[in-house]
């Protein structure tokens, strides 16, 4: 592996490994995104997936929030999308403006259309190249996060053909074709394993699995359909790294909306960090997971629309919740989901400043 510049800020890696830190490390999901004028300026000249496939452009977008919030932000996340995995499986995905699959999987027989024995490293090598270039360009300022989508969330896009409110088509699969559904979920998981291992080899220092639709399943169905593939990924990544003599990196799971599953996820899903949304209080989340994992989250992204007073009040409340009580373990400050367009970038700066202030071990 190429030698990278020495890391100057390892706060998030220490927190992810379960250590209490002098203050909470902080980053936000979708930090390179449409709320940033510099993102919109570059995006005006390139299509979304063109940027994903062009390492120099993906690197540039990854660095934008790091430059703007230098000294305040503790991690970069590679600019890409969870939908590059369905693309690697041979599906066409457009972004206009939301994701659109012209030929979704309608019935189990359609799985035959997916690419057989995908060479993940060949199909997604452009992501690895973006990661390696970004690691060099970061010059050790903060760690770089790699990611993928969770099988259940990707399954839903591949079957629905885009975003959905009803989940009608993918739930038809789960409940009419449960065995075929599980086989497809495992198949997606196997691509995710190779993809995360490749990202780690290329320089990713922490990886996150986004299960954005976890909360659409009942606790029973989450355990039945999503959890097995999430475990397959954590175990598969660790086994492949060990076999290749590559040190493990921390793994984060963001099972959005699956707050009822927190205790069992902390117990045996195989992740170091669990990301939570804002529909559970930090104290309740910590009570559910004990000291088995670090927690990441969880301010409602909508608070960023509320102005400085609201942001300060809610960061203080969040910090007190995560710090309070016995057995408090590590905390990575973040929003409970991605930052949304329309947020004033200066208000995000204020969010970071408030996290620094209220999460410090000396803060009252
Ligand atoms: C479900 C999901 C997707 N993509 C992702 C998820 C999981 C996280 C979540 O639940 O928000 C993950 C993602 N997407 C993007 C990143 C980049 C890294 C980061 O800054 O966090 C990450 C980590 C860039 C992006 N991915 C997308 C954009 C905006 C598209 C544009 O530039 O036109 C960005 C910056 C497009 C995208 N990609 C996806 C959707 C639904 C959309 C369109 C609507 C939306 O923006 O929410 C699929």
Automatic annotation (TrEMBL):
**Record PROSITE patterns:** UROD_1, UROD_2
Recorded GO terms, molecular function?
A: uroporphyrinogen decarboxylase activity
CDD domains associated with the record:
URO-D
Q: What does the record give as the reaction this protein catalyses?
A: uroporphyrinogen III + 4 H(+) = coproporphyrinogen III + 4 CO2
Concerning InterPro entries, the annotation shows: UROD/MetE-like_sf, Uroporphyrinogen_deCO2ase_HemE, Uroporphyrinogen_deCOase
Q: Record keywords: Lyase included?
A: yes
One Pfam family of this chain? URO-D
**Localization of this protein:** Cytoplasm
Which superkingdom? Eukaryota
Q: What keywords are assigned to this protein?
A: Cytoplasm, Decarboxylase, Lyase, Porphyrin biosynthesis
SUPFAM superfamilies from the UniProt entry:
UROD/MetE-like
> GO terms for biological process?
protoporphyrinogen IX biosynthetic process
UniProt family annotation: Belongs to the uroporphyrinogen decarboxylase family.
List the protein's name.
Uroporphyrinogen decarboxylase
Recorded source organism is Trametes pubescens (White-rot fungus)
